[in-house]
Amino acid sequence: MGTTRKPRLYGHLTPLAVRRLSKAGYHADGAGLYLQVLESGARSWVLKYTLFGRKREMGLGSCKTYTIDEAREKARKYRQLVDDGIDPIAQRDQRRRRGAPSLASARRLRKQRASTSGSIKAAGATPSTRRSGRPRWRFTPTRSSAAGT
């Protein structure tokens, strides 16, 4: 009499299999976690889930960044949110909007700073340092501004 094997809910992939897989496509680990291999050879973790009848795919990160155990743990946390009726993608996007500025807004801010400091320099200001060590702009008269008085 042989023993019957219980089906595993997850754990189909091993760390060695993750390193060796080169065929493009989705490779299931179980419980909605997939290893996505692109034609370029890039590998990333993807969680597939269904919430309110809508199928979703959420990227969990690169294989270079997260090991298989870390990806399983992240997937487990996000599955708990799905079980509670919370969309993890919407939650992540909401957190990002409240968090750090986007790349576009950071570029705008950098341009504003550059244009502001350029106009101050053009007006004849020089930086001086207070006791705190922070630069302060103090107006220094130039020949053109001194001639007007």
Describe this structure in words.
- The chain is α+β, with helices and mostly antiparallel strands and 149 residues long.
- The chain has a domain at 15-86: 2-Layer Sandwich (Double Stranded RNA Binding Domain).
- It is 39% helix and 26% strand.
- It has helices at residues 15-20, 68-83, 88-98, 103-122, 143-147, and strands at 25-30, 33-37, 43-51, 54-62, 125-129, 135-139.
- A 4-stranded antiparallel beta sheet has the order 1-2-3-4, covered by helices on one side. A two-stranded antiparallel sheet has the order 5-6.
- The longest helix has 20 residues, at 103-122.
User: Uncertain regions: pLDDT < 50 for 5+ in a row?
Assistant: none
Strand content: 25-35%
Give the rounded overall mean pLDDT.
80
Largest sheet data: 4 strands, antiparallel
Query: CATH superfamily name of the domain at 15-86?
Result: Integrase, DNA-binding domain
Helix/strand layout:
Blueprint: H1 15-20, E1 25-30, E2 33-37, E3 43-51, E4 54-62, H2 68-83, H3 88-98, H4 103-122, E5 125-129, E6 135-139, H5 143-147
